[in-house]
TrEMBL record:
Keyword terms, alphabetized: Cytoplasm, Immunity, Innate immunity
Pfam families per the UniProt record, alphabetical: FIIND
Organism annotation: Vidua macroura
Places the protein is found: Cytoplasm, Cytosol
InterPro entries: FIIND_dom, NLRP_Inflammasome
Gene Ontology CC annotations of this record: cytosol
All copies of domain FIIND, residue ranges: 32-126
Chain intervals for the UniProt region annotation (Disordered): 1-41
Biological process (GO), any one: innate immune response
The protein, known as: CARD8 protein
Length: 126
């Protein structure tokens, strides 16, 4: 019980330090905050199946093509693509198994990228 109280106090301290920045998820065990607004963004499609979004200000943005949610503290350009697990299968050793899509994500301002929320599944059909 004491540990839970300490964890709660620590989360509260972090939240206060962030000021206006508010995480979509307070912890992995919690549900997304219902009142957190995500701005829908349509990515630019680049060669090689890459996507790119230019986020101009602090906020939470959801990609209309992939469902990825980017939470940023300031302007950032983010380029991302879906990779094939077949290329990386040797890196996944038992007891682990592949559990979802694999993304390559690059950011022009890494310090501004607070979090990325990945979808549990990805619809690749039309």
């Amino acid at each position: 019980k004491k540990r839970k109280e300490e964890e709660k106090e620590e989360r509260e301290k972090r939240r206060k330090r962030k000021g206006r920045r508010r995480s979509v998820m307070n912890s992995c065990a919690e549900k997304p905050l219902e009142n957190d607004q995500k701005e829908q963004v349509t990515p630019r499609r680049l060669a090689g199946g890459q996507f790119m979004v230019q986020l101009d200000a602090e906020g939470s943005y959801q990609c209309s093509a992939t469902g990825l949610i980017f939470e940023v503290t300031g302007a950032a350009g983010i380029t991302y693509s879906l990779l094939s697990w077949s290329k990386y299968a040797r890196l996944v050793q038992k007891p682990w198994i592949v559990g979802g899509p694999l993304f390559d994500v690059r950011c022009s301002a890494p310090a501004a990228l607070l979090s990325i929320h990945f979808p549990h599944c990805l619809c690749l059909g039309g």
